[in-house]
Specification:
Order of helices and strands: EEEEEEEHEEEHH
Radius of gyration: 18 Å
Distance between the termini: 37 Å
Largest sheet: 7 strands, mixed
Number of strands: 10
Helix content: 10-25%
Length: 176
């Protein structure tokens, strides 16, 4: 097993920290790991029968607008109870409130570079309201799609968000 021998923070902002760890490999040789630490996130699949509610926004790191399921972390690197975070993110991004919120599974975002993990929730019995978006989400759009439309968007490359794609697999497996 790899052992950490030391660590230093190289960057911090309100959403993440980046650290560099000095490590010792099982054979005794030294090395380093760069790790992005972010708080755990919640991803929500809002479903109404055959329809799924998605959001679309500009994703700065890739320079593209992308459709995905609502998802996010608590502000200020806070550690928030997953179901509470899911309800907050759903309301914030879509204006929807769920009468039922069921956890479907856990995702590791990018375990080779990040410590961040996410919980996937299925939100049903939905009530519509006004979104409460953050400043960074001001260009966000939201829309309903049938499952067939969602799958067509996956195949066409209109949905490329790996968390949304993985979350959909939990939904499919739940239906079996």
């Amino acid at each position: 097993m790899i052992e950490r021998e030391g660590t230093r923070e190289v960057y911090r902002n309100d959403w993440m920290t980046v650290r560099e760890d000095a490590i010792r490999r099982p054979d005794g040789s030294p090395g380093i790991y760069g790790v992005v630490d972010k708080p755990d996130y919640a991803l929500i699949i809002p479903a109404d029968g055959d329809r799924l509610h998605l959001v679309e926004q500009f994703r700065y790191p890739i320079g593209l607008r992308r459709w995905e399921f609502p998802q996010g972390t608590a502000p200020g690197l806070a550690d928030t109870e997953p179901a509470e975070l899911a309800a907050r993110e759903l309301r914030e991004e879509t204006g929807l409130a769920a009468g039922s919120m069921v956890e479907l599974g856990v995702l590791d975002l990018a375990p080779g570079t990040s410590s961040q993990r996410g919980r996937v929730f299925l939100a049903t019995d939905l009530t519509e309201g006004a979104p409460e978006r953050e400043l960074e989400e001001q260009d966000m759009r939201a829309a309903w799609f049938t499952r067939a439309e969602f799958e067509k968007m996956l195949l066409s490359g209109d949905i490329t968000d790996s968390q949304s794609i993985a979350a959909y697999s939990f939904l499919l497996l739940r239906g079996r």
